[in-house]
Amino acid sequence: MLISESQHALNGLNGFVNSQGYSCIIADSCTAAIETIKRSNFDLVILMANSGPQPWRDLLYFIKERREQLPVIALSDSRHFAEFSSLLHTPSIYLLTTPYNPLELDKTIKDALEQ
Question: Environment class of residue 50 by beta-carbon count within 10 Å: exposed (0-12), middle (13-18) or buried (19+)?
Fold first, then answer.
């Protein structure tokens, strides 16, 4: 599942993920993501969170409380890493900086799926 409030970011990320052979569902808000996760099972969530973790707090807590084993790759500006770390203390969240390195993202996706 890909999540971002930015349609441009979603389109770019979706293109990359599809080019790597993965299929995905897209959500454009925290509420939409939570509702979609409630209805379906996913192997991985990729969250484009350039505004930091605060707008995504409800989603991250929902995943932590109800889908603890669901890996999350959070793509964010490096200045928000400390906020993400303090918000969630879980090994299933992977933090990457934006703009992301495609090779690093591909490796992280594979690592998260093998977890």
Answer: middle
Q: pTM (2 decimals)?
A: 0.90
Number of helices (H) and strands (E), helices first, in the chain?
Answer: 5, 5
Pick from 54, 55, 46, 56: nearest CA to 13: 46
Which CATH topology does 2-98 take? Rossmann fold (3.40.50)
Q: What is the pLDDT of residues 2-19, one digit of tens each?
A: 999 999 989 999 999 999
| Helix, strand, coil % over all residues of the chain, rounded to 5 | 50, 15, 35
Long-range contact pairs involving 66-72 (C-beta distance under 8 Å, separation at least 24)? 67/37, 68/92, 70/37, 70/42, 70/44, 70/45, 71/43, 71/44, 71/45, 71/112, 71/113, 71/115, 72/44, 72/45, 72/46, 72/47
The full set of domain ranges for the chain reads: 2-98
Pair 94, 115: CB distance under 8 Å: no
H or E element at residue 107: helix 102-114
Element spanning 98, H or E: none
